[in-house]
Amino acid sequence: xxxxxxxxxxxxxxxxxxxxxxxxxxxxxxxxxxxxxxxxxxxxxxxxxxxxxxxxxxxxxxxxxxxxxxxxxxxxxxxxxxxxxxxxxxxxxxxxxxxxxxxxxxxxxxxxxxxxxxxxxxxxxxxxxxxxxxxxxxxxxxxxxxxxxxxxxxxxxxxxxxxxxxxxxxxxxxxxxxxxxxxxxxxxxxxxxxxxxxxxxxxxxxxxxxxxxxxxxxxxxxxxxxxxxxxxxxxxxxxxxxxxxxxxxxxxxxxxxxxxxxxxxxxxxxxxxxxxxxxxxxxxxxxxxxxxxxxxxxxxxxxxx
Length: 305
What we know:
This is Gfo/Idh/MocA family oxidoreductase. Helix content is about 30%, strand content about 30%. It contains 8 helices and 14 strands. It is globular, with a radius of gyration of 20 Å.
């Protein structure tokens, strides 16, 4: 198997680790900009021009460069008609051009997957099974953490997350929450959202987001923030029989305050599970999963003000 990677940031390294762990004979190429300084990565061959390689021989292309250039990158790559593994979020913004690109990819039948590794967190997988046929009355989602702690020894005010002009913000950073809700419950028929940046972080990007999604029988409330010192990431589902509390940080599920599920899975292992699923199920065309059309819909819901 040969894989081409566009972008070699921290997330790309997680995907590379997963690929090499699962498929030791994989051959990985990485497209870099000329003059770009980089440290050598074991098992990764650097190229500086697509004309240097025979793209038709690659199994798929993995896009993990900055979100702001996803649109242009994808637009340039679709002529090769190769499967695309695209790191979330799909785009930094939705435009007529990006919607046309999504439609063109769908029309050409290009295989796509947008990477949202929380779909492979075992407590999320388990709760999807547990709520089948349950009468749900209410769902509450919360994800709060402290942005300055995200990248130690880096000035958090200078990174993408903190800067609105760079396309950052808690709503787009934590689109994972909206993605797994969409996966668990489907598309809402009505939505409301509210964004602000009034915390002491003093950043230009939104540091607080609040969503309300309405379904036929219940509503979902989502709260996201960048300023919570004691990190919390939970999913609460109220049914007729009782309440499920999913703790994503502990990878556990409680029902009516009694622990019913616990996993020792580490966060990094979700990347391995995701890659294995992509290669063995999606790439072999056994299933369509989080395609570019679905991810574009989630992005629309995320950005809607």
